[in-house]
Amino acid sequence: MREIKTRAKIKIPFFDLDPMNIVWHGNYVKYIEIARCDFFKKINYTYDEMKKDGVMYPIAKMDFKFVKSAKFEDEIEIETTLKELEPAIMFKYIIYHNNEKILCANTMQIGVSIETGESLFSAPEKLKKAIDEFVE
């Protein structure tokens, strides 16, 4: 599968800071979720579409490597790369501030049937089609 990349921008709000006036580390989970939602929106297959297909993709694994801290009102850019689609969705994220890498992260999401709760090892056809159309 060919890698697909998208980019999303976020301006750091005051309420995401910790007592040291840098972004609290837990907020980066929120930022990559925003970027992942943006990715799915850009390929025209949102979480609502997944739900209609009877599929959910809960996070099974995530890891972060913190390089530098973001601060209040920094505009960060999150590059989201789809690395694998089956048997699990795997994304890589790189967060930049002023074109400087400040964080790398990876997530793995397992497809699960909403009806049965069983793991799925192939992606819905609509998702595959959305990816093909985005690439073209």
Provide a descriptive summary of the structure in words.
This protein is of the alpha+beta class. It has a single domain (4-135), classed as Thiol Ester Dehydrase, Chain A (Roll), CATH 3.10.129. It contains 3 helices and 7 strands, in the order βααββββββα. Strands 1, 2, 3, 4, 5, 6 and 7 form a 7-stranded antiparallel β-sheet that branches. β4 (75-84) and β5 form a beta hairpin. The longest helix has 16 residues, at 27-42. The radius of gyration is 16 Å and the shape is elongated. The model has no long low-confidence stretch (mean pLDDT 96).
CATH class: Alpha Beta
The CATH level-2 architecture is identified as: Roll
| Rg, nearest Å | 16 Å
What fold name goes in the CATH topology slot?
Thiol Ester Dehydrase, Chain A
The domain tally reads 1
Q: Which stretches of 5+ consecutive residues score pLDDT under 50? A: none
The helix fraction, in percent, is 10-25%
Shape: elongated
β-strand amount: 35-45%
Order of helices and strands: EHHEEEEEEH
| Major sheet characteristics | 7 strands, antiparallel
Number of helical regions? 3
Q: What distance lies between the first and last C-alpha atoms, to the nearest angstrom?
A: 13 Å
CATH homologous superfamily label: Hotdog Thioesterase
Give the helix/strand class. alpha+beta
The overall pLDDT, averaged over residues, is 96
How many beta-strand runs? 7
